[in-house]
Design a protein that fits this description.
Blueprint lengths: L8 H15 L5 E7 L6 H11 L10 E7 L4 E6 L1 H4 L8 H12 L3 H17 L17 E2 L2
Parallel strand pairs: 1-2, 1-4
Antiparallel strand pairs: 2-3
Helix pairs in contact: 1-5, 4-5
Length: 145
């Protein structure tokens, strides 16, 4: 399946809306990327996509990528340097477990949406929203071609 066909237009809107809601409480930047196949480590692939999308180009280095390979059904969450320097080890484990549960039920829209909201909640403590915050990364889902 082509990554851009994995979610319907309505499902994509639901996920993008969740990203926008999540970012209202944090200066962190959340992106979702859907890939087709992932050969090897999803974490390594997520790192490649993170770099390709320029997610390290935020002022506070507080970007988060939620990565999903729709055909191989693997995923990862990675945060940028600014996040990793401040949060405890295994910071994303509860979000990963929730995603694993939703995805195993075939609930990909819900898993991605809930993950975005959870990431936003977790980032509030370390990167609260400020009135002068600007959106440094697009909210739309990105897809591999």
């Amino acid at each position: 399946m082509r990554p851009e066909d994995f979610l319907t237009a309505d499902q994509q809107k639901t996920v993008v809306d969740a990203v926008r809601i999540a970012e209202k409480g944090t200066s962190g930047e959340i992106r979702i990327h859907i890939d087709g196949e992932c050969e090897g480590s999803p974490l390594k692939r997520a790192e490649e996509i993170f770099d390709k999308l320029g997610m390290h180009k935020t002022a506070l280095r507080n970007g988060v990528l939620i990565y999903l390979a729709c055909n191989t059904k693997v995923f990862a969450i990675i945060g940028d340097k600014g996040i990793n320097e401040r949060v405890p080890e295994h910071f994303w484990e509860d979000v990963i477990e929730m995603m694993r549960m939703r995805f195993s039920e075939g609930m990909f829209t819900e898993g991605l949406s809930e993950a975005a909201i959870a990431v936003g909640e977790k980032l509030k403590t370390y990167f609260p929203y400020s009135s002068d915050d600007i959106n440094e990364q697009p909210d739309e889902i990105s897809f591999s071609k």
